[in-house]
Amino acid sequence: DDTVIIAGDVGHCCRHTVTTLNKLNGNKILVRGNHDVDWGYELYACSAFVGIYDIIENDNRFIL
């Protein structure tokens, strides 16, 4: 039931990266880094993440 926030630059878009991400326990949220932009559509299609964001903000108290 853990929530895992990955703060950008998760890895290159390849089968090994997606396989590894799918093995991690918990609900994974990605805050995209500059290297994640190169993934394009494949980042959203890999289904490893429950959410993908450019920024996370919560009640103006938490920004990542």
Subunit organisation of the chains:
single chain
In percent terms, what proportion of residues is strand?
25-35%
Structural class: alpha/beta
The backbone outline, from C-alpha atoms, is: globular
Mean pLDDT: 78
Helices and strands, in order, run as EHEHEEE
Give the SSE layout.
Elements: E1 3-6, H1 15-23, E2 27-31, H2 41-45, E3 51-53, E4 57-58, E5 62-63
Parallel strand pairs: 1-2, 2-3
Antiparallel strand pairs: 4-5
Tell me what the structure shows.
The protein is α/β, with parallel strands linked by helices and 64 residues long. 22% of the residues lie in helices and 25% in strands. The strands form two sheets. Strands 1-2-3 form a three-stranded parallel beta sheet, with no helix packed on it. A two-stranded antiparallel ribbon has the order 4-5. The radius of gyration is 12 Å and the shape is globular. The mean pLDDT is 78.
